[in-house]
Design brief:
mainly alpha
Length: about 110
């Protein structure tokens, strides 16, 4: 049987750990989004460079520019989806933890 002191300790530790995890997950999400923007900008610059070179040299580089554009879009989309699913999945777990702690706290009183 869990004593009142044990319940209070579990609730306190759960709130601290949940808050810490939520902070880390938010930081990971923000870093992932910044990295995704860097990838998008680099792909955009490479695409524009290919189009400029194609206009000066001929049409053979237009296909490369389109390929870079499509690859950049697919990579950024995939990376964004992975970042959102990973970080928001962890946020859901933290919210479940907090709701369970609230239920436990209500039973404690």
């Amino acid at each position: 049987m869990i004593t009142q002191e044990d319940r209070k300790e579990i609730i306190r530790k759960g709130q601290e750990d949940g808050g810490r995890l939520l902070t880390v997950v938010d930081m990971i999400y923000k870093i992932s989004i910044i990295f995704n923007w860097i990838l998008a900008i680099a792909g955009g610059v490479a695409t524009i460079g290919c189009f400029i070179a194609a206009s000066n040299m001929g049409t053979t580089l237009i296909g490369l520019g389109v390929g870079i554009l499509i690859c950049t879009l697919l990579i950024c989309l995939t990376y964004y989806v992975a970042a959102v699913l990973a970080t928001h999945g962890a946020k859901v777990l933290v919210h479940l933890l907090f709701s369970n702690l609230a239920i436990m706290e209500d039973k404690n009183q």
